[in-house]
Fold this protein.
Amino acid sequence: MKSLKELDEIRNRALDTVGLRKDRSSGARVVVGMGTCGIASGARGILLAFVEEARLRNITDMTVVQTGCIGACRLEPMAEVFMPGYEKVTYVSLTPDKVKKIISEHIINNKIVDDYTIGSAMGNL
Amino acid sequence: MEDISLYVLDLVQNSIAANARIITIEVMEYTEENLLTLTIIDDGNGMDEFLISKVTNPFFTTRTTRKVGLGLPMAKASTEGCGGSFTINSSKGIGTKVTMIYKTGHIDCPPFGRMDQTMTTLVAANTNTDFTYKHSTQKGTFNFDTRVIKSELKEVPIDTFEVLEWICSYVKEGINEIDGGKMS
């Protein structure tokens, strides 16, 4: 059974990993669409996949937040990725596997995954 | 929506949009009566009578991007589809309470779903809002409160990924411990 005591250990570990996201604006910012449309198409699993993958890869300066309906409900689940100093990239029709690729290619290596972007989905590329 | 936990995630978005600081989610299971009640209480902006009368109409929305709003009407339909009920009480400036009753023995009652994932998602994406979750069954009560977690963590943010992982397991185990969400 999990106990609140374990939080103490997690806290100490987090404090040891110096910096502790003290400058979190330096990292990637992920915004997941959480309108009714997003939730009905799986946005919860997408947000949790970003969290899980970031934890596994020990990315500490990334933030994951939510917003309402992004405006293209048929392309949900969607997420916007903001890399500091770059324009926002909107990814559509996400799955947990696509999230893993976005983390490894875009967030870690700063290389946009073109195939998953809204531009690609709308046939504009 | 596939299950009750997703309706909760969706309805709480309204509380967040209404600038709630504290959101309380309470589930009570009455196994013998085949009933599950769910309440979501927030201290957000609240609504006046006119707005309350409109919000469960799918062709009404406060949003400007499009003309439909399906969250509340779908949640209402999910309760009424199994012989349950859906009630909104609200006062402007005080907050809103949504009460949903499900008849769990009914064939059209949705499954309970992953409330651990819903709570983790809410905590992860809304660090400035506090959430309490209380789930009672005949076997006991599980309580979760982000204010308690935050006071344990002190300067460590609650959306630290390892903390979120812990919250997900903690809520899951807490609900399992009291045989919650099984529904006959």
